[in-house]
Amino acid sequence: MLYFSFFHLLVEDVFTISELKPELCFIMQGDYVWLDLKTGREFDVPVGAVVKLCDSGQIQVLDDEGREHWISPQNATNIKPMHPTSIHGVEDMIRLGDLNEAGILRNLLIRYNEHVIYTYTGSILVAVNPYQLLPIYTPDQIRLYTNKKIGELPPHIFAIADNCYFNMQRNNKDQCCIISGESGAGKTESTKLILQFLAAISGQHSWIEQQVLEATPILEAFGNAKTIRNDNSSRFGKYIDIHFNKRGAIEGAKIEQYLLEKSRVCRQASDERNYHVFYCMLKGMAPEMKAKLGLGLATDYSYLTMGNCTACDGRDDLRDYSSILSAMKVLMFTETESWEISKLLAAILHMGNLRFEGTINCTRAGCFCIVEPKDVMVCLTTRTLITRGESVATPLSVEQGLDVRDAFVKGIYGRLFVWIVDKINAAIFRPPSCESNLVRRSIGLLDIFGFENFIVNSFEQLCINFANENLQQFFVRHVFKLEQEEYNLEDISWQHIEFTDNQDALDMIANKPMNIISLIDEESKFPKGTDATMLYKLNSQHKLNSNYIRPKNSYETQFGIQHFAGVVHYETRGFLEKNRDSLHTDIIQLVHSSKNKFIKQIFQADVAMGVETRKRSPTLSSQFKRSLEMLMRTLSVCQPFFVRCIKPNELKKPLLFDRALCVRQLRYSGMMETIRIRRAGYPIRYTFAEFVERYRVLMPGIKPAHIQEDLRGTCRQIVLARLGKYDDWQIGKTKIFLKDHHDMQLEIERDKAITDKVILIQKAVRGLKERTNFLRLKSAVIVIQKAWRGYRCRKNYQIMQSGFLRLQAVYRSRKHYRSYRTTRLRVTLMQARCRGFLIRQTFWRRLRAVLTLQAYTRGMIARRLCQRLRAELQHRQEAERQRLAEEEQLRNQMTARRAKVEAERKHQERLIQLAQQQEEREREEKEEARRKKELLEQMEREKEQPVDHSDMVDRMFGFLGNSGPLPNQDGRAPSFFWPLGGRREAEEEVMNEAPPLPDEEDEDLSEYKFSKFAATYFQGVSTHTYIRRPLKQPLLFHEDEGDQLAALAVWITVLRFMGDLPEPKCQLVINDGSEKIPVMTKIYETLGKRTYKRELQELQVEGENSSIESQKRNSVRHKLVSLTLKRKSKITEEVTRRLTEVDYGLQGNSMLEDRPTSNLEKLHFIIGNGILRPVEEDICQPHKNPAAVLVGITGTEH
């Protein structure tokens, strides 16, 4: 029967494995997989996970974010195996086997959690903002990364700067580094780090290097501001071109700025600030200078409080203002120019506080611009129109007046920023010498805004995304070129690889005739042009273009463009006004009438155009387009390096990784386009040694790579055998190039080959194990089966007979129920089948558990029955021996026939007596069972009573008070008392073959308590409560008399330990050197089951041949003494002599009967019995059961 069960389990396991999906066949516990949750959200990608459990019909996985998932075989398509390179991450993501969004995202996540923020993708550096200071920018790091190639050291921003510098020197070619990313991703910090590295590595430490570095604080003060996403957000793009002489020293630089966010001067969003320079000036300017300008606190000005944020954590405006002033001095700003800049900034703040309430107080604002306040008031309240040579003044509304004020302020700040950039360039730019024939080289740093897609996108987003389209086109072409170069270097035959080109989007936006930029410019030049007419022209011209998304109806004011990173919808309201970027004639006249030379200087170009500024001034889009074309021409002649800055979260917190946010940035930055280009070629590349080591298992007989001579030939042999001759794979000079499906095919075949070998080994090992177990259990199973089958049949017959009437009732009700269920089953068929499947799974699991329990139970019952039969057989054999002995004795007194008859008569009497004794024992057992059942019921009732834990502790440990002079009042028990008991209990559980079962009466086995155990198994009238007198018999039944004597000896020692029995009065001193022997050594020498048995046999022989006086000496007390220690011990002989001469008056004695002993010696004796006699004493003794220890010490119930 057990053989059939084992075979059934083996077959079931094989069947379960064969039912799994192909994707799950090779997934084991501990494997890493990709888990696709399929949420349907735009920026959700598969997440990495590790398999925790896979042998229960379902797969339990733990993903990278710490969440658990259960995957059923029906949803096996949700998980895919993870490539080994994606498990622990790589420094260069080109080496990733899972070259997709999920693979790149997990690689960045693993490294980010390890405080490694830089990762390569070829020559592209991906930098994740750590939002904390890391000790990786020290001078030692600069020296470490000097003159090192990419890949020699871990990824670092210094490695990119170093390669830019030394490539420029070695190749004599201009270099550029394009730094892109969202606001808050770390572009500005990366730019500063590259500048610091270049200044340090040039080795000159000249004045021009200091000037280049000092330009950063000024540009940050006037061009950076606190936003929701970033505390130091650059609100403009810049390209810093650093010039080097032939020795590699910095000799100059030039800065180009793009698209400053001028609207921030007039309005800010909630929790955002204006540009840093305003707060630094109000915080750091001397009080007397502030008094001259009429300045106060930042909270006093409307332009600085719109965002309800005037302070920024982590920035010190006072210290920054000192840095600005010192940087201006280094960059040759005069005191007059610095003062004029402060006056203009003060004028902007005062103009922001203007209120239209009948009259306008323009005194302060006009004073700083040195214009008449009356002219300022006229400019802000009226507008002059020239019609047919005549000027007509029309009044403005309050809203129009505020718009004019804001336009004037934006014009002042925008032209001031341009003037500051020109001033910095005048200080740091050195024109090339005409006499020198050497062409100087440069390194350009482009810190540009990343792709933007907000809820509401306006004209600024169109320009920004147009710039990113150009950079993406440049990026794709460059990366594709590197791909081609590697193919050429490896000398492989390949065809042109098609890739997605965003040139069509660029043509639609700015290149082809009637493009979007030109249409916006054209409409901006019409006096009556509106945003609606512009949108109409865009729809008419580009409605058939696949990259243009027209409005759904005529009421919408948005149009969409399909960019490389996704669709962006632009709100056209305000497009033309922002594109014109021109000041009204009245404002130009006001500036022209000013006596301030500085304001005239920054408005010089506008004043020179005269009154026709509106018609002749270039639009903002045309200026931006022209600047962008110059930038792309500059970049095209340079060798580029790319730095992609990633913002891990919106909360600016360290070690917080927002997966959706990072996926969006990777997608918008064009990283996915790089992956797509790699996929179009041969993205899987192995060196010959790596390929042979990984896939040599596919062909038997191939040696490891390190002992191979022709690795190229071996690789060709493997791919020809597995991929075929005509498949699209290539072997280069040092690498083998494969497609994605090749890698998948080879991985599947490799897993299958390894799995076949594993299954073969498992089959042999499991077969040997099962055969061994089968042969060992076969003989026992046959006996158990015979007894159990007979018992089972009888039991089933009784149950069927007693329940026949009940079955009839159940059958009739079942018949009516089935009639009802048939109708209902048509509706709930699928549900019933599903539930039936789950129930069957649960049933088979429980059935296997029940079979196991049954096997153990049957074994226990059989062993008990065997023990009873053996005892009965022994009694009958003993009676037969006595009959033969009596017959032999009677033959000497009478004839043989009479002797035989007389012996037979006495034999029958003894058999009848044995039968009566058996019946008496059965009655006593029934009575004992009844009494124990009543006791259990009483204990259950007592269990319901509340327990006072304080009283219980006092009763348990109250005897541990102050230590007294008596040897039995030593205070606390040893600290190792409890662990010893716990360990002994664990050994007993291992040694017991099967748990004991109670009688067949119905009783609750849900809880196992000491009281229940005592009531069930203790002999006589013994209960679970502690008694303070020696026992007449052991608590548990022992067949061996030596075990009974040992149990009684231990109990007497426990009573002595607790002080419930007095110590012996005799003092025996034996000076034979034994006092120096450790107590445990003596116990080991004198204890043991063999000693007890041998001594018991000798006593039995002596008892049969000795007189009545000898029988008295061999009483229970004498046996305890003689069996406790070996006879050869002098202590044993002396104790025996004294106990035979003196009537001690106790029921039993211990091994320490001859002298008073310490508690430690008693404890050693108790523990020694537990160690050396593994089966001799019941588990209720203190040294075996912690629960019994409490009973023994306190004398209360457990």
From TrEMBL:
Pfam families: IQ, Myosin_head, Myosin_VII_N. Its main location: cytoplasm. Residues 881-903 are annotated as: Disordered. Residues 628-650 are annotated as: Actin-binding. Residues 1026-1198 form the MyTH4 domain. PROSITE patterns: IQ, MYOSIN_MOTOR, MYTH4. SUPFAM superfamilies: P-loop containing nucleoside triphosphate hydrolases. ATP binds at residues 181-188. Residues 881-890 have a biased composition (Basic and acidic residues). Keywords: Actin-binding, ATP-binding, Cytoplasm, Motor protein, Myosin, Nucleotide-binding. Residues 88-751 form the Myosin motor domain. One of its GO terms (molecular function) is ATP binding. Signal peptide: none annotated. It is found in: Cytoplasm. One of its GO terms (cellular component) is myosin complex. InterPro entries: Actin_motor_Myosin, IQ_motif_EF-hand-BS, Kinesin_motor_dom_sf, Myosin_head_motor_dom-like, Myosin_VII_N, MYSc_Myo7, MyTH4_dom, MyTH4_dom_sf. Belongs to the TRAFAC class myosin-kinesin ATPase superfamily. Myosin family. This is Myosin VIIAb. The lineage of its organism: Eukaryota, Metazoa, Chordata, Craniata, Vertebrata.
